[in-house]
Automatic annotation (TrEMBL):
Superkingdom in the source lineage: Bacteria
GO molecular function: peptidase activity
NCBIfam families xrefs: PRK00033.1-5
Keywords of the record: Hydrolase, Protease
Organism: Polynucleobacter paneuropaeus
Family that this chain belongs to: Belongs to the ClpS family.
UniProt lineage: Bacteria, Pseudomonadati, Pseudomonadota, Betaproteobacteria, Burkholderiales
Name of the molecule in the record: ATP-dependent Clp protease adapter protein ClpS
GO BP: protein catabolic process; proteolysis
Length: 118
């Protein structure tokens, strides 16, 4: 008479171990919540020295606005003290601020460009 021992059991599932089948553990997949990136508005600030034509050119060149829209933004900067040129993600906004300030300094103008989180 041959005595057979019971098949070994998987410690995780408690099921008999089959040497021909790999045990896999399935984990519940959690839904990933992706948050939209923070947005920033890029602003030009008024000063008494930068020519209006230069401000219009900057808005057209760096913010892809047509002449009429650029003129409207420039007048808002001139009359209100600041004007929104566009809304971008953090990296894009920071790049635009840097480009505008760099061009202004090269041209000898004190034009200020900043960004604010929305």
């Amino acid at each position: 008479m041959v005595l057979m021992s019971p098949a070994p059991k998987n410690p995780v599932s408690g099921n008999p171990v089959n040497p021909h089948v790999e045990d896999t553990i399935l984990l519940e997949k959690q839904a990933e919540k992706v948050k939209a990136p923070s947005m920033f508005k890029v602003l030009l600030l008024n000063d008494d020295y930068t020519p209006m034509e230069f401000v219009v050119m900057v808005i057209q060149e760096y913010f892809n606005k047509d002449h009429e829209t650029a003129t409207r933004i420039m007048l808002q900067v001139h009359l209100v003290g600041k004007g929104v040129c566009g809304i971008f993600t953090r990296d894009v906004a920071a790049t635009k601020v840097h480009q505008v300030v760099e061009l202004s300094r090269e041209a000898g103008h004190p034009l200020q460009c900043t960004m604010e989180e929305i």
